């Protein structure tokens, strides 16, 4: 399924063209830039520190969404093999692990191969997963949620259970920040269930786990470089309650479904990715009917998990309830709470573990009502319905993931740029900031030819640092106090006016190249320093 959706051309680790062509959007470019700077740098403390991309705005590999866990692995292997990109391998690994864990989970209820295979297919052919693998690659690590559900629904206690949870939280912290609170919530459910069971709580051991497991998650954040950022955790746009789960979102096919009518839901950037597919909806409906018709006592064993999943659902919905695109502020929250919750602004994502748990529970209910073999045929039919329904979504993926050359040429193609790379060590975009004008072209150019730049796109950025850099550079341009070995790509009229006011026409070059205004201090007196670009 993953191969059919994305193609095998994304697998060769030396081929970066499919990421840098711009066809998928700016996010893959961000991941590659973070990894490229990180791979070239020496190991630091913490290991995720990444000062090589962003100059004063730099932070860590964590904030370039470059999957620190995998980045650590390939950086350690760099003396043996040089990897240009590992996201193709990651996409395939996410699909494989999602399928294996869904197979294992369904194996707790039945040995029927068709039922297990069909459920594995439904979990992989899932818009919640495929939408993320279509651009937000780190968020494709949703197999961590299935691993957490596995631990929640299987019996176990003692140090091995605690070690499994600790490893899972550390891995989540080193893959993507949003996955960590989801996995942490699942651990809390399992811990609470064991703590309430006299036969499983283990005395002081359960108390020690309450400290050690979260500590491992925090250690993962530290290793990835989470704490290197001093501000800006709420992001530069949106906020908690503005990217919430619309109550009709699971029934809105958007660009994914072929059969259900498109309905009005919330219009924010996260909208359109909570539709589970018509086949999955059929399983959920059938499972609900089977549960209502049969014995329902089994859910009591999982009371803690249900409680936590209800909490995650409320977190996804937020205090600003959306129904069919209309918002209702049901529970006004103090500003100090909302400002802290802004770090988890894309709250619709917290629907993922709820949907996965519900889909698994529905499949199990069908098996118990129909028997493994008959349920297998029903679930396989649902998988075929899912495949037919998601044809528009797959077509959309194919539109973005098309075969590209192994490498793509720089978009800044004028000979000036390579000559500038031979003369200067730094290039700034003015003004700088999150996805500033010209950031992508300049950042890829700088990374390719070995310059330092403040052209960045990071998951989070400190606005105070951005303000300080822009103020200092604006003053320097105005006064002609240009930084050594630095040239400037000007992104607005104000910067161009300052550059003109402060330049010395006898020494400095101010001109347009590839449609971009550039100030190159000292260019006219460096004519004898020409050399091949780095």
TrEMBL record:
Keywords: Membrane, Transmembrane, Transmembrane helix
Domain of life, per lineage: Bacteria
Residue ranges of domain DUF6311 in the record: 2-391, 416-521
TM segment ranges: 89-107, 137-156, 162-189, 210-233, 274-292, 304-323, 350-370
Name of the molecule in the record: Glycosyltransferase RgtA/B/C/D-like domain-containing protein
Species in which this protein is naturally found: Roseomonas nitratireducens
């Amino acid at each position: 399924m993953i191969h059919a959706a994305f193609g095998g051309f994304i697998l060769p680790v030396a081929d970066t063209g499919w990421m840098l062509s711009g066809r998928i959007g700016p996010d893959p470019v961000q991941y590659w830039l973070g990894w490229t700077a990180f791979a070239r740098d020496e190991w630091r403390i913490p290991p995720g520190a990444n000062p090589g991309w962003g100059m004063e705005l730099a932070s860590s590999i964590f904030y370039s969404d470059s999957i620190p866990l995998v980045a650590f692995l390939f950086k350690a292997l760099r003396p043996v093999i040089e990897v240009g990109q590992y996201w193709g391998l990651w996409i395939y690994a996410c699909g494989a692990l999602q399928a294996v864990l869904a197979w294992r989970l369904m194996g707790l209820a039945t040995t029927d191969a068709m039922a297990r295979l069909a459920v594995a297919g439904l979990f992989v052919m899932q818009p919640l997963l495929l939408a993320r693998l279509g651009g937000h690659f780190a968020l494709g690590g949703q197999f961590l949620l299935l691993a957490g559900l596995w631990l929640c629904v299987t019996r176990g206690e003692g140090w091995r259970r605690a070690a499994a949870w600790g490893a899972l939280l550390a891995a989540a912290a080193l893959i993507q920040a949003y996955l960590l609170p989801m996995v942490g919530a699942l651990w809390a459910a399992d811990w609470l269930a064991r703590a309430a069971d006299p036969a499983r709580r283990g005395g002081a051991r359960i108390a020690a786990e309450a400290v050690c497991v979260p500590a491992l998650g925090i250690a993962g954040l530290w290793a990835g470089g989470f704490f290197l950022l001093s501000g800006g955790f709420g992001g530069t746009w949106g906020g908690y309650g503005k990217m919430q789960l619309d109550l009709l979102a699971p029934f809105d096919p958007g660009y994914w479904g072929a059969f259900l009518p498109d309905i009005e839901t919330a219009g924010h950037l996260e909208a359109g990715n909570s539709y589970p597919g018509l086949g999955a909806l059929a399983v959920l409906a059938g499972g609900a009917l089977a549960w209502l018709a049969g014995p329902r006592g089994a859910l009591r064993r999982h009371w803690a998990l249900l409680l936590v999943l209800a909490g995650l659902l409320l977190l996804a919905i937020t205090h600003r309830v959306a129904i069919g695109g209309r918002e209702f502020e049901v529970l006004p929250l103090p500003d100090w709470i909302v400002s802290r919750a802004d770090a988890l602004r894309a709250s619709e994502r917290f629907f993922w573990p709820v949907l996965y748990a519900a889909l698994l529970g529905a499949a199990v209910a069908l098996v118990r009502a129909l028997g493994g073999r008959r349920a297998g045929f029903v679930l396989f039919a649902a998988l075929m319905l899912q495949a037919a329904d998601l044809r528009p979504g797959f077509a959309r993926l194919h539109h973005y993931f098309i075969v590209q050359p192994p490498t793509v040429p720089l978009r800044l193609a004028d000979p000036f740029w390579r000559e500038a790379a031979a003369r200067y060590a730094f290039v700034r975009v003015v003004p700088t900031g999150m996805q500033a004008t010209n950031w992508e072209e300049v950042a890829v150019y700088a990374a390719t030819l070995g310059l330092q730049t403040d052209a960045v796109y990071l998951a989070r950025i400190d606005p105070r640092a951005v303000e300080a850099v822009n103020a200092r550079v604006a003053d320097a341009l105005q006064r002609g106090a240009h930084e050594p070995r630095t040239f400037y790509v000007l992104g607005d009229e104000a910067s161009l006016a300052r550059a003109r006011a402060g330049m010395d026409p006898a020494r400095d070059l101010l001109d347009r190249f590839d449609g971009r205004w550039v100030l190159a201090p000292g260019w006219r007196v460096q004519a004898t320093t020409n050399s091949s670009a780095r």
